[in-house]
Amino acid sequence: MKLLIFGYGYSARFLLDQMQPAQGCVRVTTRSPEKAAKLAAEGLTARVFPGTDMAEDIAWASHILITAGPEDGTDPVLTHARDAIAAHAKRLDWVGYLSTTGVYGDHGGAWVDETTPLAPSGERGRARVTAEAAWMALGRDHGLRVHIFRLAGIYGPGRAPFEKLRDGTAHRIIKPGQVFSRIHVDDIAQVLIASMNRPDPGAIYNVCDDDPAPPQDVIAHAAMLLRVPQPPDIPFHQAKLSPMAASFYAESKRVDNQRIKRDLGVRLRYPDYRAGLAAILAGESQK
Prior knowledge:
Elements: E1 3-6, H1 10-19, E2 26-30, H2 33-41, E3 45-48, H3 55-60, E4 63-66, H4 76-87, E5 94-100, E6 111-112, H5 123-142, E7 146-151, E8 153-155, H6 162-167, E9 172-174, E10 182-184, H7 185-197, E11 204-207, H8 215-226, E12 233-235, H9 243-249, E13 254-255, H10 258-264, H11 273-285
Parallel strand pairs: 1-2, 1-4, 2-3, 4-5, 5-7, 6-13, 7-11, 8-10, 9-12
Helix pairs in contact: 1-7, 4-5, 8-11
């Protein structure tokens, strides 16, 4: 396998940790020349993108993973590398695009699955719907073996409530009826590896755990694990949220994950936030 990753961030790093690829079998992109130099010093072949002609890297690859999100409403990989990918489509074994469960929009806490009509409520979700459709069209038109992964809220080491609880900045924002689905970053990695091992061009997968839950319950459980006081409850209408956080609270749904289990044989390592948070805290104590 020769893997090209557009957008080397949090999820991609954990993917490579699980894959343990041979030296020289992975190439990645980053927007920062400084980060590219740092990654090169760590032994990764890194390109600055956009800004680098990726045609040679695309010709080299057997697998491509796109983690980079839309910029100004458009997909940067399609904008800058569509023709090169189309030219090599039939020799690529697998292409994966990381999308979001935000494409479903708000369902008032009801369940959604991969057949649910897409009705995003914000610009970010609409940009993802557009990008998904464009990748699928590239697959139909050129025989590209595209797979779409709709990720729920990502958490994992370094992205858990513990630090905010320790420094006193965590809050329990209460919005009646609000539920989110989540996914531990290690389980994202195992889903992607399972798909690479069982390609199914055109497939769409929800990537989430078994237990959609109110966000305040997650904070409460993390506080219990740390043995610190519960943060105060803040009614949603009084909360001072960033535009990103507000967009999450604008949508409530429970996301079904049966397809990754049935079609890919995935057995989640962390089927709920309780298991995931316990593992993160245990990992911190071992450092």
